[in-house]
């Protein structure tokens, strides 16, 4: 009896235990599926995130490479521009230096040239003064050693020589325009010489003027005539000047 009751009690318990086991198994399977699904989803999301991160990382690396390439290009371009500017500055500096040197040389040459010109002018002035002094000295010496009688004879000879020279002048080769004339003579002209000169001037140069000479003892001998642009110096003083000039050429 007791066994029967015990069996009656054990059977429901076994059924309940089996049911609980089945329920537990079902719950485990469900939980496993749920957990596995969540895990797979999580893994999928993780893979997607990793792929997205990889793409972003690749894009970022590409942009970084592009920036580095652009930076390198701009740096090279800047260095090239700097080099060209440096070369241009050096060329400009060299040109400026050359121009300054050329200007300095030009100024130096100008100074030397002006100094040489001044030196030449001073030399020419000294030569002229020396020539004038030489002519003046010759005139003084002439007046000291030559008598008045010889001087008058020499003056007449100079005037006659001028008359002979005028006789040989081709009147067609010279044209003179003069309303008046200037005459200078070392001694008063003899009447026949004066008349002959007036006749020659009228015939040779078509100039009708009366000779009113101005006595100039410094001429030593001979006379000077000025008709407009025509000047004739037939004096002994002028002969001395020409002689000094010839002696200077011979030195």
Provide structural commentary.
This protein has 251 residues and is of the alpha+beta class. Helices cover 77% and strands 8% of the residues. A four-stranded mixed sheet has the order 2-1-3-4. The protein starts with a helix and ends with a helix.
Global structural class = alpha+beta
Largest sheet at a glance?
A: 4 strands, mixed
Strand tally is 4
Q: How is the largest sheet built, in terms of strand order?
A: 2-1-3-4
Strand content: 5-15%
Determine the N-to-C terminus distance: 184 Å
Inertia-based shape: rod-shaped
Rg (C-alpha, Å): 67 Å
Question: What is the average of the pLDDT values?
Answer: 80
- Low-confidence spans: none
Number of helices: 4
Helix content percent band: over 70%
Helix/strand order = HHEHEEEH
Secondary structure topology:
Elements (H helix, E strand, L loop, with lengths): L1 H144 L2 H20 L13 E5 L5 H15 L8 E2 L6 E6 L2 E6 H15 L1
Parallel strand pairs: 1-2
Antiparallel strand pairs: 1-3, 3-4
Helix pairs in contact: 1-4, 2-3
Tell me briefly what this model is.
With 251 residues, this protein is α+β, with helices and mostly antiparallel strands. The chain has four helices and four strands; from the N terminus they run H-H-E-H-E-E-E-H.
